[in-house]
Amino acid sequence: MTQTAWTETGPPARHPRHTHRFAAPLDPVVRRMRALRADLPARDGIAVFNRVYLTVTEEISRLIAHDHFTDPRGAATLDVLFAGRYLAAVESSSLGRRPPDCWRPLFQYRRHPGVRPLQFALAGINAHIGHDLTLALVDSCRALDCEPAFLERDFDRVGDTLTLLEERIREELMPGPDLFEVADPMTHLLASWSLERARDASWSAAKVLWQLRELPALAQEFTDRLDAGVGLVTRCLLTPLSVPD
Questions:
Q1: Lowest CB count within 10 Å: 53, 136, 219, 225, which one?
Q2: What's the rounded Cα separation, in Å, for the pair 245 and 178?
């Protein structure tokens, strides 16, 4: 079952007020991702996604430190809670516990020889954007006592950073021209998924969950369905395309 807290409705939401510059507490998150990078084999599917996500987190940390976000405290809170869900999934798997459904296919296929690095990267991004970002946004609103609308600009800025990174991923991990020309299944997979659409769906789902915060049973059901649905897309993105001789 997806981890989330729906036991309290909290006080009426309002815009958080900040009167001083906020130092983002992202260093512990970055250290944990760097430790994973050092510990995992480079071809491991989690390692492929971790390298991608570490780059994103380092860039967002830099942007927060240089006041590129409307609300640095809000952006930092969102990013820490966002990253925390990925790291919690890794920890659950390492301890033999069941990770969220959106992440399970990546852990199951992480060493499959027929899944290419680009697939691992996109599958991890799908799980993280489609599920984790939704819940992290709601968690951030609770932590900051604000409505989702007050985090929308910073949500979009994080999404823009991820979009730029996706372009870089495709350039670095895309098969060579000759291989890609004959890899029709790969072409189909790349064309069937969009980070921008996943981000838009995540924002819409977060707004729905925020409205359901006083209906915990219904909110939990919605969250579980979201987790399962994103997991199906993750599994499709990890369809083995070839097996080396």
A1: 225
A2: 18
Higher pLDDT, 112 or 7: 112
The amino acid that residue 53 corresponds to is Y
Give every CB contact of residue 15 below 8 A, 6+ residues apart in sequence.
146, 147, 150
Torsion of CA 244, 128, 193, 108, to 10 degrees: 30
Cβ-count burial 14-52 (b if 16+ within 10 Å, e if not): eebeeeeebebebeebeebbeebeeebeeeebbbbbbbb
Closest by alpha carbon to 126, among 76, 158, 162, 94?
Answer: 162
* Helices and strands (H and E) in the chain: how many: 11, 0
User: What are the residues whose beta carbons fall under 8 Å from the beta carbon of 127, sequence distance 6 or more?
Assistant: 89, 100, 102, 103, 106, 230, 231, 234
Residue type, 243: V
Reported as a single tens digit per residue, the pLDDT across 172-210 is 666 555 455 545 677 677 777 888 899 999 999 999 999
Q: Which two tokens stand for residue 167?
A: 């372009």
What does the pLDDT look like over 131-143, one tens digit per residue? 999 999 999 999 9
pLDDT, average across residues 24-53: 90
Inter-axis angle of helices 72-94 and 133-144, to 10 degrees? 130
